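anyone else get weird line breaks when pasting these?? whatever heres mine. first is seq + tokens for prot A
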Amino acid sequence: MRMKLIRKNENPTRNQTLTVAYTPDSDDVFNFYAWEQGILSLPGYDPVFTRNHIAQLNQDALNAVHDVVAVSSVMFPLLEKDYWILAVGSSVGRGYGPVLVSKEYPTMASLAGRRIGVAGKKTTGGMLAAMYAPPDAQLIEMPYDTIADHILSGDLDAGVMIHEELVHFPALGLNRVCDLGNAWCTDTGLPLPVGLSLVKKSLGRETAVEIARVCRDSLLWALDHTEKAMGYANGFGRGCSDTFVPMFSNTDTLKLPEDVRQGLRVLFDRLARQNLMPELEHYEIIDA
């Protein structure tokens, strides 16, 4: 189904600010391009777009700062009281996801007691490292785009690559120890929900559905005008958008398929069983 363009100022009597926050990474930039550039709009709302590292967005969501926000999937059990999950905008790994890399250590077993850099212990990559790395490994938090440099300098023994670092790390001379996303998919038989887009419950369900639709239409526009949207997205991250964006901006991102929803349920249940997150019995997904 193709999108319907929504023109600006169709309802000038309403004019409410809507804060939208996402990561400064090429897939998110690609997804929001049409909406942020004013090609599409949500009548009655003036969106204010901001970008920040995923660890900061997770923290912002804990404080319910933004109306629409991209977060690590593993954070949602702490956010359910304030947010619904949008069916549009998720990052999904099918056989891939965050990658644990090193310069010197070739296996997971060799990382026992070692220092592993993560973008945040409560990011999906950090939680997967806690699940699959040796239990005595030390997880050290730092900005995701500095982890590779700290491995190369010897300050870290290994690190979890996320965002465009996933496709850039071989060029730096780093080696894959374990694709944590593939480990999850092999372990569970389900795709890995890496990241989610959330909408604040206080906006109301009707507005939440409208937001889901404009997010969907923004991605559809980008997929129909790939050269323009990709050209802009390539100015972010490591400049690897041609490779990276199709991994995380695709049909999974448009509608959160049933097997991804199953993977999300399994992820929440496993986090609770391992005492990494509180138990989450019920949550709602807003479809476009």
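and prot B, same format (seq, then tokens)
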Amino acid sequence: MNHWLSFRDHAPSQLASLITLARGLKSREPAAVAAARGAIRDQILGLIFFNASLRTRVSFEAAMIRFGGQAICLDVGGSTWNLEHRDGAVMNADKAEHIKEAAPVLSRYCDALAVRTFAGLKSASEDAADALIRAFARHSTVPLLNMESALEHPCQALADWMTVEERFGTARGRRFVLTWAPQAKAVPMAVPHSAALAAAAAGMHLTIAHPPGYDLNPAILDQARSWCAEHGTRFQITHEQLDACVDAEVVYVKSWGSAALYGQTETQLEDFKRYAGWMVDTRHLRTPDTILMHCLPVRRNVVISDAALDDPRCVVVDQAENRLWTQAAVLTRVFKQRTDSRGS
């Protein structure tokens, strides 16, 4: 089954080919458009949301419609039953249906499924296992796409990679700084994980800046470090945010919670306040060509200042648009592979 679950399931060259296709779709190259329409036309994509969404929902729907397919959106616990994913669960509470039945049933209706779910932020080891989306993958009989899971957000990462390429011509060799920023509540690590993986896979020099105690998942860091080594680029982690930004060409901002403070809501909020000075401002954009990135939504004057977000070097809207084109590329690849496998 050709699922799209993790950057780590693909070689950097395979990921780069998706960027090439996405850029071709955005520029309306006839061959790229014909490939997308040929793959996506008449296909049905089931979108399953465990969490709220703006860009992810609309960009996937728009990609399907633009190239001749159709999307069906389901809100778990809203327009559908609450779903259980744990094996052996005694379902005597609020969850009326198990993924073991829901996933194969939806697979009969749709040509592919896509799931969005956030980290529980109660157990770092449980979130690292990505249990919910992995359960969907086990029980789905059609390709499954990750629209953000507890551990990764690969679709956002592709859009980020594409945005850097558009701005600089190539991502390879660029100096990419992923910096932590404070928040108003505990938030997951999926986006920073995928941003780090994308930077490393694209051949960028990767620096991750965060306060002590805000380490990312070790397996993700190991993969990013390995890809940097393959490309001959620098990988480093620092607790000195301003120093990290001195020669940055890309400043990617994202908040995330401390794994050590999972489930400790009040303590986590106090820790965010302790590092309020990590909010990103124009002082972090040290050159006229440095670009500022964030996945959105963003809390103004908490995560990033008004001045930085309103600066012409801020490319957050470009990133959001590129979700459409990179996801169209993924859909093209997934549907084509499925069609080819059925014909062989």
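btw re prot B: The chain has two domains: 7-152+323-343, 156-319. The longest strand covers residues 44-49.
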